[in-house]
Design brief:
InterPro entries: Circ_KaiC_arc (IPR022420), KaiC-like_dom (IPR014774), KaiC_dom (IPR010624), P-loop_NTPase (IPR027417). This is KaiC domain protein, AF_0351 family. This protein has a domain of about 200 residues: P-loop containing nucleotide triphosphate hydrolases (Rossmann fold), CATH 3.40.50. The chain has 13 helices and 11 strands. Strands 5-4-6-7-3-8-9-10-11 form a 9-stranded mixed beta sheet.
């Protein structure tokens, strides 16, 4: 049971006082809420997400006295066939395996053609403790789960199932006796509990057992109180013995900062506090209007340990629109690079790891 003080200035503890009335709140039914679509709000891209790094050209050094000049009409083939080939004649090339052939490269295989696809049913690639996400097909794509105490982001546009991803992630741990925290900046506390219950996740029971804290926070209040939150959140997680945490969504928090440098600094400090709290945390994020592979401000994907991209796939012939998930990165863990179809069912997300999109 969480100990709550009477300090009315403490936003976080005020929010947690509602946990004691969980059963009454659940009986009253979902509250009416108005959700402003974050994707409709104008947002400037962060400096990190504005551009794409491109490899710089490599200048080949050469001795002008040895290399013949090349006229405008000279063909490139003659340069490489004669001069470059001649330059390699006296170079010793190390052999690999059997003795090399006349050109020195016969036994070196630089291509990937014919390479076997990675076997994601193989044994785990490291000794790091893993935590299952609770989405079977997705867990198989990452060999049984993400490393414990990772910071994860699920990115996607509206309707791709980001919140459902978070609910399912918590329910999987709670069903196994873990404790968890759900922080929402978009919905009311009662609405979150009701939405989870409709999918078969007994969040009302978990709250009554003091194993789940559902906290709804006004994003403006959270931005103004971020300094105190960063100090209190790790303490709450430790006191509550939480192993999983979800923040839905970090995009609304990012919108509170107009200055790019301030936004980057505040979000960096906040994500660092989550990592230092010793909890496996999942944050959701809206994607950029320009591309589904980057967050709205291009910051959070660089600060997290794992990135899951949820997106719509719309064929050119306007057939059925499909949903696809892609693992953009997971630190310290091998994972599939394939894009796989998934559905949002009454029970949550279902990833078809053995299927292809088309």
């Amino acid at each position: 049971m969480i100990t709550v003080s009477d300090d009315r200035e403490d936003w976080f503890e005020r929010a947690l006082e509602e946990n004691d009335g969980a059963e009454e709140a659940a009986d009253e039914g979902p509250e009416e809420t108005t959700n402003d679509d974050p994707a409709a709000l104008d947002g400037e891209r962060g400096s990190d997400g504005d551009g794409v790094d491109t490899p710089s050209a490599v200048d080949a050094d050469h001795d002008e006295g040895d290399a013949p000049g090349r006229s405008d009409g000279a063909a490139e083939d003659s340069l490489f066939d004669d001069d470059f080939g001649s330059a390699l004649e006296n170079v010793d090339v190390p052999s690999v395996g059997d003795e090399p052939g006349p050109d020195g490269f016969s036994d070196l295989d630089f291509g990937l053609e014919g390479a076997d696809e990675p076997d994601f049913d193989a044994e785990l690639d490291s000794e790091l403790p893993r935590l299952e996400l609770g989405i079977e097909g997705l867990d198989r794509m990452i060999q049984g789960g993400v490393p414990e105490r990772s910071l994860i982001v699920a990115m996607g546009s509206a309707g791709t199932g980001k919140t459902t991803f978070g609910l399912q992630f918590l329910d999987h741990g709670l069903a196994r006796g873990e404790h968890a925290v759900f922080i929402t900046l978009e919905e009311s506390r009662a609405r979150v509990i009701d939405s989870a219950t409709e999918k078969g996740y007994p969040f009302d029971e978990y709250v009554a057992e003091d194993r789940l804290a559902v906290v709804d926070v006004d994003p403006i209040e959270m931005a103004n109180s971020l300094a105190s939150i960063k100090n209190e959140l790790p303490e709450l997680i430790e006191e509550f013995d939480a192993s999983r945490l979800v923040l839905d969504s970090v995009s609304l928090l990012e919108m509170m900062y107009e200055d790019r440098a301030t936004r980057r600094s505040e979000i960096y400090d906040f994500t660092r506090s989550l990592k230092e709290a010793g909890v496996t945390a999942l944050v959701t994020s809206e994607v950029s209007q320009e591309t589904p592979y980057a967050s709205r401000y291009g910051i959070v994907e660089y600060l997290t340990d794992a990135v899951f991209v949820l997106q719509y796939i719309r064929p050119d012939d306007f057939r059925e629109t499909r949903l696809a998930i892609e693992i953009q990165k997971i630190r310290d863990a091998n994972h599939s690079r394939e894009k796989k179809p998934y559905e949002i069912t009454s029970e949550g997300l279902s990833v078809y790891q053995q299927a292809n999109l088309f």
